[in-house]
Amino acid sequence: VKTGVMARLGWLLVCAALTVLATATCTQAGNAAAGTKRTLVLCDSAAVKDTHSDYFAFLAGQGFELTYMAADSSNIALFKYGEALYENLIIFAPTTESFGGVIGNKGVTDFIDDGGNVLIAGNANVGSAVAAVAREVGFEMDEPGNTVIDYVHNVNGDATVVVADRVIGVSVMVGDKPGPIAYRGQGMQRDTNNPLPLDVLSASSSAFTHDPSKPVTEFPSAVGKSTVLVGATQARNNARATVSGSIDLFSNEFFALPGFQNREFAQLLTLWTFQQRGVLRARDPRHHLVSQTNGSYEYTINDEVQYSIIIEQQIDGKWVPYQGKDVQLEFVRIDPFVRKALALDSAGRLHLTFRLPDVYGVFQFRVDYKRSGYSYLYSSEQVSVRPYRHTQYERFILSAYPYYASSFSMMCGLFIFSFVFLYYREKEKLN
User: Taking the model in full, what pTM does it have?
Assistant: First the structure.
């Protein structure tokens, strides 16, 4: 009896332990899923939460878990035990001279290198901390005190509140038809030696940057269309950073301006920055002979090969087939021997059928897709291409017929010469 009771107690303990483990696993999975939108907001004033409440309410409605901290707080940390505590970082602290805690400028760049996304906003009195971070992602802010001035395109005669309509033509970042944007803040210059930064919003040809309280005695540092108002960079690890020279662009005041689309522009650009738009993934690459269905890593020159891959885009949290028509496949040894566009079939796979080149060696099926506003994709499959085996050549080659004829003609000539030499006898001459 005691043995049976102990056995039952043992089973109950095992079941309880398994239940606790399953519950903990589910809780961790749920936290991991929810944690993909963990966002740290650094502010230099508590009033930012009130002046930008509409913007923060939009982020909360999109499922972002916002954590507010003062930019100079000593408790700021982006990593713990080598793991990132947040996926996104918002720096709405334009006048901050140095960040608190252990982050510093290097901490922000390390956060980007780890795959984190950053949104930075400045103003006319931008601090050195924000300017240094902007410089790291490819944008040079103007001197403190300078602001963008436009006496032609402005709002209600205020030359420091300019109207900008030179928006990047990438719908996944700013929508299909972005309207005019009201802007008040710093102008920036893009690093022309860096191929990654993009000019998202630029000033008009009549704008320039200067201190409005001082007369213009020197040529402004930024003039006309080269003045960047909002810029964005997508790093090679697909981390994204957006820099705005105006924190007012995200404020309730500018959201409420009639005839301007600051609200839509700021919301769409933020969703892009935080990996909610323009995210692609590639999976399940396949290649095989046209006459077969099983894949192979060794082919023969001039084989007919079919390649296919699935590329998906994340829309509203779901992965759907990407409808791009400019995805190309490259068949590369050192340089591409084949470069052709992939076609989308009804099953959502991109595919291509082509003939391998008449060159043997080690090749790669490579898809290297880089388009503005979308995640970078890179897929590579290595295969060997060998020459024909001895038994695979044709028995009689048409181009060799002259050599065949010359061989047989030599044999016939030798036979005739031998016959004549052996059996021909000259008649004897009579004295």
Answer: 0.80
Q: Specify the amino acid at residue 327.
A: V
| Cα separation, 199 vs 283, whole angstroms | 31
Tell me which residue of 268, 250, 231 sits closest to 62, measured CA to CA. 268
> Which residues is 304 bridged to in the sheet?
355
Q: By the 8 A CB rule, do 98 and 128 touch?
A: yes
User: What DSSP assignment string belongs to 133-185?
Assistant: HHHHTTEEE--TT-EEE-SSSEETTEEEEEEE-EE-S-HHHH-SS---EEE-S
Q: How far apart are the first and last CA of the chain?
A: 144
Write the burial class of residue 10 (CB in 10 Å: 0-12 exposed, 13-18 middle, 19+ buried). Answer: exposed
Q: What tokens does 173 get? A: 């970042």
- Answer whether 324's CB lies under 8 Å from 310's CB: no
Mean pLDDT of 325-329: 90
DSSP SS3 for 310: strand
Q: Which of 361, 299, 309 is nearest to 335 (CA)?
A: 361
Burial 129-143 (b: 16+ CB within 10 A, else e): bbbbbbebbbbebbe
pLDDT at 431: 63
Q: Which of 74-88, 100-114, 193-207, 271-285 has the lowest mean pLDDT?
A: 100-114
pLDDT given at position 44: 87
Give whole-number Cα distances, 363 to 198, 268, 299, 388, in Å.
34, 41, 10, 17
Distance CA 309, CA 355 (A): 18
- CA 163 to CA 181: how far, in whole Å? 6
Three-class SS state of 350: strand
Residue 212 phi, psi dihedral angles, 5° rounding: -65, -15
State how far the Cα of 312 lies from the Cα of 7, in Å rounded to an integer.
Answer: 52
How far is it between the farthest Cα atoms of the chain? 144
How many Å apart are CA 193 and CA 200, to the nearest integer?
A: 18
Residue recorded with tokens 């190309």: 328
Name the band, by pLDDT with cuts 50, 70 and 90, for residue 399. confident
Q: Are 398 and 361 in contact, with CB atoms under 8 Å apart?
A: no
